[in-house]
Amino acid sequence: MGAKIEASVVDPASNWPLFAEKARQLITQDKVAVVFGCWTSVSRKSVLPVFEELNGLLFYPVQYEGEELSKNVFYTGAAPNQQAIPAVEYLMSKDGGGAKRFVLLGTDYVYPRTTNKILRAFLKSKGVAEADIMEEYTPFGHSDYQTIIAKIKKFASEGKKTAVVSTINGDSNVPFYKELGNQGLKATDVPVVAFSVGEEELRGVDTKPLVGHLAAWNYFMSLKNPSNDEFTKKWAAYAKAKNLAGHKDKPLTNDPMEATYIGVYMWKQAVEKAKSFDTDKVIAAMAGQTFKAPSGFTAKMDEKNHHLHKPVFIGEVKADGQFNVVWKTPGPVKAKPWSPYIPGNDKKKDEPEMAKKAAAPKK
Q1: Furthest-apart CA pair in the chain: how many Å?
Q2: What pLDDT, in 10s, does the model give residues 89-147?
Q3: 281-296 as b/e, with b when 16 or more CB fall inside 10 Å?
Q4: Reading across the β-sheet that carries 133-138, which strands appear in turn?
Q5: Which of 75, 78, 209, 319 is least enclosed, having the fewest CB within 10 Å?
Q6: What does the pLDDT read at residue 171?
Q7: Following DSSP, what letter does each residue of 105-117 receive, concatenated?
Q8: For the purposes of burial, counting CB atoms within 10 Å of the CB of 261, is it exposed (0-12), middle (13-18) or buried (19 or more)?
Q9: Is 93 helix (H, G, I), strand (E, B) or coil?
Q10: Is 212 left (phi over 0), alpha (psi -120 to 50) or beta?
Q11: How high is the mean pLDDT of the chain?
Q12: Alpha-carbon distance 18 to 13, whole Å?
């Protein structure tokens, strides 16, 4: 429509309250039309009241725990039924090693705790006993995994095939995987499936001892298709031109990058359809938007629930830090923001409340 896109970039540096402050600044001072951002659920929960109060628009590009639906947010990352549940089903299957005992290991905040609440209920529905589930949490930035890995080894030695489901987030993944290697815990003994480890997280790790461990995502850089070839080439050219740290020599793409990329283009298409940057008009125009995604599938924004229909892939870590896809869904999966494994969710509506909130008076 002849409007030039101008990016306003702010970095709240993992300081959760600062996310809300920066969101308010973007909407009220910078007058942005849309925000693509937040990394953890705790940062998203921090900004959510601001977007709802000021009727702003947020695209959230990271896998999360569900149990949320807002008129002002489009969730382009995976809900639990598009990542966590399929991954655990795979671990329980013959192809995935037939796991009977599970270690739920996460960073101590809302995403791992809620995801594990859902997984615990799911495992119980499949007949897994309480004694066959171990649950452990560590704080953000935790670096000493010696004791926990020793506990996992002991738990795994008690007779049944054991798997680890990891929702460890951020920098802690590096010491966790290093310690896994140090204690010789191989994928053939105790496979680890991670929901927050992609190509970028493996950059700083010796991946040779990790070969065969798993990650579940809706995209991997190693996927072979024309859309992904174009995406990875464009990113490599951009990273080199901008001299991005780490990416100049080894330009990597990953799942949250793909989710952001899809979101940006869908927002553009919705603005063109609405012929307006007005939040409410763009929200209405987002329903049913489609985009040929780098995953090789056509991503679709659900007509009602503000989540993408996405394929699910499970990949094995290769020695070069890339992933070899060992399992995938036949096509895109519709998100279930309200998990059927949490009591009372069957009564919740699968669409956000569209009643327009009155914006707070300007001070």
Answers
A1: 66
A2: 999 999 999 999 999 999 999 999 999 999 999 999 999 999 999 999 999 999 999 99
A3: ebbebbeebebebbbb
A4: 133-138, 101-107, 162-167, 192-194, 214-217, 313-317, 323-328
A5: 319
A6: 85
A7: EEESSHHHHHHHH
A8: buried
A9: coil
A10: left
A11: 94
A12: 8
Q: What share of the chain is helix, strand, coil (3-state, %, to 5)?
A: 35, 15, 45
The CB density around residue 263, as the number of other CB atoms within 10 Å, is: 26
Q: In what order do the strands lie in the sheet with 290-292?
A: 290-292, 298-301, 308-309
48: left (phi over 0), alpha (psi -120 to 50) or beta: alpha
State the distance between the two ends of the chain, measured CA to CA, in whole angstroms: 33
Residue indicated by tokens 């991946």: 207
Where helices occur in the chain by DSSP H, the ranges are 16-28, 41-54, 84-92, 110-125, 146-156, 173-182, 226-241, 255-274, 279-286
Residues 238-261: pLDDT tens digits?
A: 999 999 988 888 899 999 999 999
**Res 361 pLDDT > 60:** no
Quick one: which of 171, 182, 245 has its CA closest to 208?
182
Residue 198 DSSP SS3? coil
Question: Strands 35-36 and 58-60, how do they pair?
Answer: parallel
User: How many CB atoms are closer than 10 A to CB 144?
Assistant: 11
Alpha-carbon dihedral angle through residues 277, 8, 18, 271, given to the nearest 10 degrees: 20
If 0-12 CB within 10 Å is exposed, 13-18 middle and 19+ buried, where does residue 232 land?
Answer: middle
Cα 191 to Cα 58: distance, rounded to the nearest angstrom? 36
3-state class (DSSP) for residue 152: helix
Q: Which residues pair with 35 in a beta bridge?
A: 58
